[in-house]
TrEMBL record:
This is GNAT family N-acetyltransferase. Keywords: Acyltransferase, Transferase. It comes from Nocardioides jiangsuensis. The keyword Cytoplasm does not apply. Residues 140-281 form the N-acetyltransferase domain. The lineage of its organism: Bacteria, Bacillati, Actinomycetota, Actinomycetes, Propionibacteriales. Its EC number is 2.3.1.-.
Length: 281
């Protein structure tokens, strides 16, 4: 029940229907927040943070996931200013700000004089979607990983994360938590790889799922095998399985400067539907 007539308030379990209606305005772009809302039911015990809502005349018009990631949802200019003001009062708790470029840029315009300098900023990240069979033949060697693959898969996950983010997920004692996350994705059936002779040649994970879409992350090809088309056929295999067994739309976002990845995704049949930005601390 949204009692606040105007401004920002914390959302809780009773607000789930209103938030579900909000994310449904663009359920693919908003799949991460939709996923988090569904698995936590907006219960503070499971959120690991907060979900903020911006209310006008008693109606929820925007939201913002405020935990390890600060993720705006359908954020109007007024909501962006209000979310930024709340974030300034609380000081920085997140590791990243990520989401639609306009909202992320607006948030940072308000926050940059109050928060520490970011470690990296990626202003242009095409958001891509596919809802049909891939345009290339899937790699038959790509399969869902199994618990017994964890020891082989984990180093590739660390290498991908370090290459993509710029710091190791094991930094600061994070190894156990990151390994648990990799194991969790395997257990859910959301981890895919081509493994030969004890080496991961290609891998990718589904990171978020809703009834409307899923989002892929962690795409990686062994550095010694890049340029052979493994990413293209591997992604085709992941897309084919995901569309058949996980969600009706597959999405991801990619750095604009990552030309090889963008070529691979285009060859599979992904099309750009939005632009994301990410600010990392």
């Amino acid at each position: 029940m949204l009692r606040t007539q105007h401004g920002v308030r914390l959302l809780g379990p009773s607000d789930l229907p209103a938030l579900s209606e909000l994310v449904a305005r663009d359920p693919v772009v908003n799949v991460f927040v939709d996923h988090r809302a569904r698995i936590t039911r907006l219960d503070p015990r499971w959120m690991g943070g907060e979900m903020w809502g911006y209310v006008q005349d008693g109606e929820l018009v925007s939201a913002c996931h405020a935990a390890a990631n600060l993720v705006p949802v359908d954020a109007t200019p007024e909501a962006v200013q209000a979310f930024a003001a709340r974030a300034i009062r609380q000081r920085r708790r997140c590791a990243t700000i990520v989401g639609p470029a306009d909202a992320v840029t607006g948030l940072w315009d308000e926050l940059e004089h109050h928060w520490s300098r970011p470690r990296d900023v990626r202003w242009v990240q095409p958001h891509l979607e596919i809802d049909r069979a891939p345009d290339v033949e899937p790699d038959p060697g790509v399969r869902r990983t199994r618990p017994g693959d964890l020891d082989v898969l984990y180093p590739a996950c660390v290498a991908m994360y370090t290459e993509e983010v710029g710091v190791s997920p094991e930094a600061g004692g994070g190894a156990a938590m990151y390994r648990a996350r990799v194991a969790q994705l395997i257990g859910k059936g959301w981890s895919f790889a081509r493994i030969e002779d004890g080496r991961v040649l290609f891998k990718a994970e589904v990171a978020a799922v809703s009834p409307y879409a899923c989002q892929i992350q962690g795409v990686y090809v062994d550095p010694t095998r890049r340029g052979e088309g493994l990413a293209t056929s591997g992604m085709a295999a992941v897309v084919a399985t995901a569309l058949r067994e996980i969600a009706p739309v597959v999405s991801l976002y990619v750095n604009d400067h990552n030309t090889p990845a963008r070529r691979a995704y285009a060859a599979v049949g992904f099309e750009q539907t939005a632009t994301f930005s990410t600010i990392m601390f």
